[in-house]
Amino acid sequence: MKRISRDHKVRNFHQAKWDEPIIFELSNEGERGILVPEAEEEIVKVVGDGVSKIPESMKREKLPNLPEINQKRVLMHYLRLSQETLGGDLNIEIGQGTCTMKYNPKINEYIARMPEMTELHPLQDESTVQGILEIIYKTDLCMREISGMDQFTFQPGGGSQAIFTMASIVRKYHREHGEENQRDEIITTVYSHPSDAAAPATKGYKVITIMPDEEGYPDYEAFKNAVSERTAAFFVANPEDTGVFNPRIKEFTDLVRKAGGLNCYDQANANGLLGVTRAKEAGFDMCFFNLHKTFSTPHGCGGPGGGALGVVKELIDYLPKPIVGFKDGKYFLNYDLDKSIGKVRLFNGVPQTVLKAYAWIMSLGAEGLYEVAKVAVLNNNYLFKKLLEHKGVDAPYIRGKQRVEQVRYTLEKLAEDTGISTEDIARRVMDFGMHYWTSHHPYYVPEPITLEPTETPSKEDLDEYIITLHHIFDEAYENPEIIKNAPHRSTIHKIDESSFDDPEKWAPTWRVYLRKTKEE
Amino acid sequence: MRKIGLIVNPIAGMGGKVGLKGTDGTHILDKAIRLGAIPEAPAKTIKALEKLLPVRDRLLIVTCSGNMGQEEAENLGFQTKIVYKPKKTITDSNDTKLAAKKIKEEEVELLLFVGGDGTARDVYESVGNRQLVLGIPAGVKIHSPVYANTPEKAGELALLCVMGKNIAVREEEVVDIDEEAFRRDMVRTQLYGYLKVPVDKKFMQNKKAPTPLGEEATQKAIALDIVDHMEKEICYIIGPGTTTRAIMQALRLPYTLLGVDVVMNRKIMKKDASESDLLNYVNQYPSKLILTPTGGQGYLLGRGNQQISGDVIKKVGKENIIIVSTNSKIIELRGKPLLVYTGDKKVDEMLKGYYRVKVGYGMEVMYRVEGE
To answer: Complex ipTM above 0.85?
Structure first.
């Protein structure tokens, strides 16, 4: 018998291509997947027919224009589509830097889907939901340990909403202190997440951005010149997207505090810091964690996110209502926050996400969380060292020092040598069942790639990712055409991207698609 | 039939390989030829024109006789219309200017010109910003972003223009350096004007999300911020540049793109003011000075706005300087400081330090300014 060949150094991948129509195109009039049985007479007698009580003004005149398809075809449709995606559990998910794409333990998904969770309703009486309140309360206690803050809310639905909540608290705080009009500026840094500028801007703040110094740290001299009696707050990530940690952060926060401003820490991604540094000791008044990043709950389409926002004692009263309290052996919803900014989301956020995060924290314990940070940093620096071995790759700033949990690389040299851009390479990576992300726009680092391995990948996974990137970088020098025309083995091949910028070519719904493609 | 224009500056680039840093001035050209320089431009022209071969049958190239375009175009089998004949075999800057004027009269869709910064200046002098143009790089000095990165890229962009695809138009600076100073290893650029060039939309902005604003929208946002916060009875001195021009456009006032304009209470006080005009105003009224980096290399002062002299600045005061810039210009600096050169060392020294550079509506970047 012949042995299976394992000679190829990169994966011989090919993605499914089904050329599947859009679901509306599958519709056949009268075809159906399920016939809903009419209610039995006995039931109708008690509750009515379920339709006649709907006010006439609210009744549809025409049936909704939904596709009519049989069950098997629907199933086939979505299974095919699922084969045409690149799910986090399928690929070696290192390429989406800043997003901390780690493994989501499946047992936690199972726990969150238990009827004890799914059958809860947010309007139930407190006495009947003691279990989930306890979990929210205890997750809060864990978060306090991790950050040094004094109280958390889980109301924000994600990172940007948490930043928006922080900006709302900043505004209310200065209003309470009679300085709302005077303090109209927030300061951030260029390598913090763009939402650290955008969310305060939506609250009406002027945004002042600090550029990096030669080493990639926020320029302290520039910062000193920016802080004034007009400073409302400082919003910053540390480490920033470059993976560079600012060791002088306390000097920055001290300066802001002295000037009367608040310090807000973007810890959306705190994977390299668990058990290592805390927001409190760095002089911050608020911080937030993305449960769907550092705390392992699914990301993006995998499930709802969660922004856990913590504040120091002095700011607890400003938090959105309610927060979960514990008194006389009972958990309760505390609405007694007299300076509260109000709500940023319905009820108490996404409790099943908090549940999954709690399960993850408890499965690791304090030592385990610290281990997560260490392995994530180790993985990142292994990847960093190996990628820099290629002549076309570099990473600006802090030469010779290690990075925290991610790195923003530059392919500037490779692009100069070969004419191949980072976007070209990003398309070619798909031919190996992988993916990578470049950077937020605009590109401050030219021809960027941002990679973050987290603690999840094994050394074999890391090596496969590294070998694949090296292989593609070599192709750029030896056979650039294959990259220029990539992807070749993905669901769709290279497309004309120019329409991405042209709203006339966008169809957000089926109806719009029909309108825009109608032949005259 | 689609029409494009073509001007080749046949001597462009000849100084480079013999180490002469440009061919402005006939004695330098003689020297270059004596040193064995061979023409660079024809080969580069051909590299660009080859990209247009797929539309050869539908294209008329309006050009000049001999080595100013005809030879390259006809060698590749393009149909040509000759509208200018140079009088001598060794052409000079006048030939470029006259040719550009003639070609513009033919109403071409795009005027391709082959050369360097000097050629771009000549083209600008003839057509201003009223003609879509694109440079094919062949010269020794290329500081003006009116040139494509390579001849091939210029050809590709020209092809997109001819096919009417994915093209946006942007005004880019025509800058040139003083060649005499450059030969002494001093780089002094000067802003001469703006040419209208095509840009492939694909390279213009974020392909995944439409949020980052284009250059023009950013300039508008900056202008609205300035206009919304203009104070009464303050004299605003508006320096040259397209970003500052957007302020004048937002105010619906007449302006000069390369000159300095003076505005007070939303009315124009003086268009294209001289140094003495400016001194006159700043001595009478409290004033603010609005500047944007021009002329490449991040110069705020000293590259085409000499009217704003040391004396004017001393009177205005450092705290009344407002710097505006699109983010893309800040990114292009790669961390290098913005520069000032007023000719007055004390003033340059006084101007050093960190400034808030306005990069959008309510958006500022802290940035360093240094003397030359």
So the answer is: yes
